[in-house]
Amino acid sequence: MALLRRRKRPDDDSPQTPGLPEEDEDKTIKSQKRGKRRRKKEYSCLDNCCWLVGCICTTWWFLLFLYNTMPASFPQYVTEKITGPLPDPPGVKCVKQGLEPKHPVVFVPGIVTGGLELWEGHECAEDLFRKKLWGGTFGEIYKRPSCWLKHMSLDNKTGLDPPGIRVRPVSGLVAADYFAPGYFVWAVLIANLARVGYEEKNMYMAAYDWRLSFQNTEARDQTLSRIKSNIELMVAINGGQKAVIIPHSMGVLYFLHFMKWVEAPAPMGGGGGSDWCAKHIKAVMNIGGPLLGAPKALAGLFSAEAKDIAFARGIAPGVLDSDVFQIQTLQHIMRMSRTWDSTMSMIPKGGETIWGGLDWSPEEGYLPSQRTHANITTSRCNQNESYSTMCDTTRINYGRLISFGRDVAESRSSDIERTDFRGAVKGYNLADIKCRDVWTEYHNMGLSGIKAIAEYKAYTAGDLLDLLEFVAPKMMERGMAHYSHGIAENLDDPKYAHYKYWANPLETKLPNAPDMEIYSMYGVGIPTERTYVYKLTPAAECYIPFQIDNAAGDIDEHVCLKDGVYTVDGDETVPALSAGFMCAKGWRGKTRFNPSGIKTYVREYHHNPPSNFLEGRGTQSGAHVDIMGNFQLIEDVIRVASGASGEELGGDRVYTDIFKWSKKINLKL
């Protein structure tokens, strides 16, 4: 019997422990099993994560391999199987119709789309000579964010280069063909013009440092002089054929400034004489031009925000206000962007005459089309419900560009109690000391100044300049020396010969060039920022004190207001009113703004998003940048460059009520 042992259980893999009673041995076995289970659970999560990462990486590299090995025509083949045969690119279509290059073409890029490279910098950037700081991969933002911020900012007093730093625009067509790898700006238009026969001898990218005020691009880089010389050269070598100018976005304002500069006498102007534009320019085809400004620019200067930022804050509250890497914060963005004087050219112009007051606006009663409505609603919305019940237009006051609280935005003006902020005592704030290098002029306002802004409650276009001068006096001191935002009473007044008025179409005359044509070409059918609902930020010394109230609005109940932003028709960045009014009314026929009667045309392109991801950004997009790949717009450009007139294109083409809105604006013509 001494040789008998307890039979080992079939499921017992643990070795027996000699010298222990059976009960103790059972406890030891159970303990070992629990330990094994614990160890198994402890590593299972890590194992799963590793497997997941491995699967994602393997799948990614496999798809990348397939993408690089598949025929170039494969995406088109798949797309055609889904959507049917694709139309010929505009360049191919125009070649089949026998069109050839005739007029030289000049591209004028807008804000942020042109590349900037380093020519001189501080020690932290010593290995970046002639490498892009803006555009391309933007790799330096992640590698050395503080250094990148320092080199992209301008001097806060002069609006020019800080000591020891020289950042200059990239030259040539590559300056703005792609904003980042795979993200085209001018590339599609250039490629289609090349199909017709254009090349660098009759195409020119008028690149400039888009951070500077327009006149400072000449003072520092002689950019305006170089544009003048290049246009003269292109006209000369192309048999005297006048140039077709194609500005985009802020480039529209920049070229408006150029047309006054080139004819003005030196030293303020280029000394080309009053007939320079008539001799050298066939047409100006403005694409997405904020001729009367953009509310989005106002929100950017006021709180470094826009609709997208407000939406992101709603998804991840606190992230944008955290100091991650000392770069991914709105405070740092504001500190940098407020040194870019060019942004002040896009502050809404014309005051309440153009943009409306507390109780009226040109777009009053605006209803988006059902097509637009479907694009911005979700499956939760009842598509059969009339838009008027979902969006009570009688409660929308587009003239109130900034309202503190949704109730203020929708109340009658007689029910709003406002306390004037002008002259309010700003007080004192120690935040400048506590917030390291994060500089915004809000820190100099003190709590009393911040409270005064909120107590005014509703701001119209007539209040904007006073508002910005109150919250950012240093920025506005520079800006007001280079730009003006009013309406001229008498354009023959000698004061309007100063360059500060040249980028405002309401304070300057078009050149004496009766044979020239001007086009306003822009996208419509996309909700575009018009007015904002703001709130005070929860007390925190280093935060920007005002935020768009992303909680204001519900897509099911109040489609007109979403994430604290009221929208109207436009290209997602510039409202149709700003892009189209001057060609629809202000410059139409012989007016005091257009004394020679230059012909003007309004060409709207209704947004039609791509049907599948293989179409990329689409060929019928009306979005502010994506419209540069719109086939219909590109075809219009090629036809004009080949000699067609606006009448031959079909004259005006509109989808919005731009002419109706323009009639509501009581502007002396």
TrEMBL record:
<comment type="similarity">
    <text>Belongs to the AB hydrolase superfamily. Lipase family.</text>
</comment>
<dbReference type="GO" id="GO:0008374">
    <property type="term" value="F:O-acyltransferase activity"/>
</dbReference>
<keyword id="KW-0812">Transmembrane</keyword>
<feature type="region of interest" description="Disordered">
    <location>
        <begin position="1"/>
        <end position="33"/>
    </location>
</feature>
<dbReference type="GO" id="GO:0046027">
    <property type="term" value="F:phospholipid:diacylglycerol acyltransferase activity"/>
</dbReference>
<keyword id="KW-0472">Membrane</keyword>
<dbReference type="Pfam" id="PF02450">
    <property type="entry name" value="LCAT"/>
</dbReference>
<dbReference type="GO" id="GO:0019432">
    <property type="term" value="P:triglyceride biosynthetic process"/>
</dbReference>
<feature type="transmembrane region" description="Helical">
    <location>
        <begin position="43"/>
        <end position="67"/>
    </location>
</feature>
<dbReference type="InterPro" id="IPR003386">
    <property type="entry name" value="LACT/PDAT_acylTrfase"/>
</dbReference>
<protein>
    <recommendedName>
        <fullName>phospholipid:diacylglycerol acyltransferase</fullName>
        <ecNumber>2.3.1.158</ecNumber>
    </recommendedName>
</protein>
<keyword id="KW-1133">Transmembrane helix</keyword>
<keyword id="KW-0808">Transferase</keyword>
<keyword id="KW-0012">Acyltransferase</keyword>
<dbReference type="InterPro" id="IPR029058">
    <property type="entry name" value="AB_hydrolase_fold"/>
</dbReference>
<dbReference type="GO" id="GO:0016020">
    <property type="term" value="C:membrane"/>
</dbReference>
